[in-house]
């Protein structure tokens, strides 16, 4: 029987001050799914986090609970039961030569690249037996027709040269889901939000007329630093704003956590988007 992987995927704000086009995902093997979901839901219950966990809901009053929830999530990552990938672009890399159609479909083109490459699926089954993939996508923010077209592209992954004979994708296994019902996707939202927050310097934001940062901003910054510390427990020299090192070959499958700074093949550098 083929190994089965469930990939939960989400996207964050489209455009940031310095970095944009954020995509995040978590991969769990079907053999680990019940254990992972059970531990995360148990932690939510014990922490009295009865509402959906979301980066936008982080406050001073909930900070310690969110830290504890992220500890459970990263314990599962370090145990090899969850693989997490984050992808984003830098505004300083300005794409060149794109057609009008490519500009129009930029969101889906990037999403496709993320799902095709970020987890290293071609290395998931080295003995030649293909891995069966289920894609659980947070509700796509586009029309039904464009979303259906994107799902068709995902179906075609198994026919690409890199994944032919290595991946199986069934049409009924590409599903849009409500994150409220899926605790793994909720945890991805928190990590993705934290990365977007830090890379775009939102930890420095002050309300108009104020000399100090607001309590919510301070709480989010503390949660980001807690998440970053958990990542650095895996990679001591981790840099949040660049592609994680050692990403050649099978490492893209084996690594528990990775970032991918997607750089267009044809681009020009715009220094006005560099941080001061």
Architecture overview:
By secondary structure, the protein is of the alpha/beta class. The protein has a single domain (4-273), classed as Nucleotidyltransferase, domain 5, CATH 3.30.420.10. The chain has 8 helices and 8 strands; from the N terminus they run ββααββααβαβαααββ. It has helices at 30-46, 63-78, 100-104, 106-117, 144-155, 183-199, 215-232, 251-254, and strands spanning 4-11, 19-29, 83-90, 93-95, 131-138, 167-177, 257-262, 267-269. The strands form 2 sheets. It has a 6-stranded mixed β-sheet with strand order 6-5-1-2-3-7, with helices on both faces. Strands 4-8 form a two-stranded antiparallel ribbon. α5 links the parallel β5 and β6. α1 (30-46) packs antiparallel against α2 and α6 (183-199) packs across α7 (215-232). The radius of gyration is 19 Å and the shape is globular. The N and C termini lie far apart (54 Å).
